[in-house]
Protein: Lipid II isoglutaminyl synthase (glutamine-hydrolyzing) subunit GatD
Organism: Streptomyces jumonjinensis
Amino acid sequence: MSDSSLRLVWVYPDLLSTYGDQGNALVVERRARQRGLDVMRIDVRSDQPIPTSGDIYLIGGGEDRPQRLASERLRRDGGLNRAAENGAIIFSVCAGYQILGHEFINDLGEREPGLGLIDVVSTRGEGERCVGDVLADIDPRFGLPQLTGFENHQGITHLGPTARPFARTVIGRGNGTGDGTEGAYNDTVFGTYMHGPVMARNPQIADLLLKLALDVNALPPTDDRWYEALRNERISSASQPA
Ligand code: GLN
């Protein structure tokens, strides 16, 4: 960590917070404070420079046009790439995930370059939009409980040779390639299609980011009964036949 307080950066709330993904910043902040950590939350609008000394960066989903604007501005700014070079933890959702890859299809139907921080390429799915509840098993190396979330995307994300799938779907489409993968990561840069917001439904992911930022293997326990009730409700509803 850069100094005594954890620097939590919420990237472009004006463009990429369409689906309540700002909840992720609230949950990471709260779970850090519950462990007695001092948190400096930095919300960076798209007309402001991205600070490069953050510990954790969060990026949400968005509609196709704001997604293109966000990608253009992030490329021009360069701060997120410098933060990644500094070893920052970056967690992105849906449109944000596609932006962190090499390219995606924008609202004009053109190939839009991303930041190349995750070795993935997103294309536009020809079939039905991927919409619905998702259950997925997270990469076992993280030792985390099952992931639950809600997906809503047209893009299909293909993993390159160096990206690892973040999870494997039990229910839902995930990356949409039909290979059962959901999300991807390279080193400390993560992407997922899970809205919900994902941290509210999966506080284990907020804790994963905190552990990586603090470089520790475990955090003090918290009372997670509310989270568990919500997770169990979503798991049982996602498992019902449509
Ligand atoms: N516009 C992108 C897509 O449809 C991302 C959507 C989202 O962030 N939910 O694939």
